[in-house]
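Ticket #4471: structure output looks truncated?

Reporter: J.K.
Steps to reproduce: submitted the chain below (552 residues) through the standard prediction queue, then opened the result file.
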Amino acid sequence: MKYLLTFLLFIGAAYAEYPTFQDTVKSICDANPTIVEVPVETVVIEEVIKEVEVIKEVEKIVYVTEPCDPVVTEPQTVYERISAEAAKPSRGPQGRPLPLAGHWNTGTYDLSFQLGLIDQGHHLLPWIGFPKTGYPSLVQEVADKNLPISIVSTQWERILYEQDKYLNLPLDVNPNVVTSSGTVKTQLSPFGGKAAWYDAGRSWTEHSGLKDLQQLFPDPSRVLFVSNNEPHMLRWADATTDRRAPSVSSDDEMRRLVGDGWIDVYSSFFSGMDDGLTNWKDKATYIGYENFITSAFGRWSGWPSYGIYTQGRFSPWPEAWDGASPPYYLHNWNQSTDFRVWSPQVQAMNHVHFLEQTHATNPNYWYEMSVWDGDMRVYDESKRKYYESIGQEFTPTRYKGYVTFGMWLLKPRVVREFRFYNEERSKNEEYFMALVEAVDQVHNDPLLEKFWRHGKLVENPSRKHPYQSAIPSDAKDIPRMFMLETNVNPVGSWSIFTELNAYTLAFELDGEWLVYSFSPLQNYANIEVELPGYGIAKVASTQAGSFTHIKN
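Returned output as attached by the reporter:
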């Protein structure tokens, strides 16, 4: 059966008084109980209208099929939106989940501050410290609003080399390095017994404060256990200092055995954490700082000593943990900047292929992005002092442009800022709000949301990634270069200290492109970008970062 509606579109002032087409479709759905009601703003016109015939210049006949095509109702409040995005898999039929803002600082960036921002419409995933014996009273409000929560903590496994009950275990099952002389070092080993790891993991989640929190908050949409993940660990290059290390014939074999060992012991550790939980076993996600391929991949010849890359496996950590929070850091202790080839932007391009590879086998893998601009409590140690010494200023606007580039390159679940635990919030709140603004704009702009969820990152076929040192044979041809060619960047080869004027990405979707361009040193009204599949495109490029939508 079809429903026929005839309506006149009056020219001039009368037209403005007539119901819109979407109102008319809704009225049809409301009038017939067999037709499913859909939110007006989400009606997909191409699916609802099956035939439109123009009878006269001022008259149209519209046929609507029975029933109206159902459309998934999107969450309406900011609390619902945050919970819905946090609960989604990292890759699924609805595309990529939208990003949320977070933080490592659980002191001065407390729950009161967080909930105040969420109440204003900002998209944060709340965070607290590990609740050993108690938790902040405002967690009740997080629970009442059914928000997800992050529990940010130290490196949990450090108790294995801090507590005597583990240090004094028999040498063959001791979780720490055992030297040739039989000395136990305060350093974790992948060759120790797994039972101690299980016991240590369970000891964390059996704390009374965490049990009480689960009773208060029995069914959150997501619980993230976030580890600082900087324990004293045996590096693969020093593996033979543990007398239990096997004999091998190559470095690659040792890296594989060390990686296999870490997968085994951490799997036991997280099994222990799971078994200590009461209500959250199916909600808990264990993620650690770093925990992905090293950012130095290809930058210098010595990088393999700091990673555990083997043929066919870029890192063991995605097989041991539920997720990672790799650093997108302007370290104050090295020469990286946001305006040279040695930059977090260029380094992060190494992650793209391996992240897609990980999500192909584990669509629930949780990948965050930890962000820091190198600012320190002591000014003389701060990265900002370096910028000022060369006549530049690293402003919140520039910070936003820098963060947005990393976000759009990597599509993280959370953009988690780092500041020191006792740092006054007033010192850097402007910077955090710039990060929050970068996150919010994805939620608030339908075009950006569409490209975030479904857009395909465009590879640059004209230039290889500038980091080409000691690249493994099975990684030589993987796509790693996504910054596009522009007329404001140097031609020819680049060194790690080459200055770049524009960091430009593009995303393709159904014959359209979204171009993002960040210029750390100055604003450009127009730059020329070589856009594969399109040609030369002119786009704006600014310190705050600029988006340009291009249709073919």
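Triage note (M.O.): checked the attachment and the full token line is present. The chain has three domains: 2-65, 78-454, 457-551.
Status: closed, working as intended.
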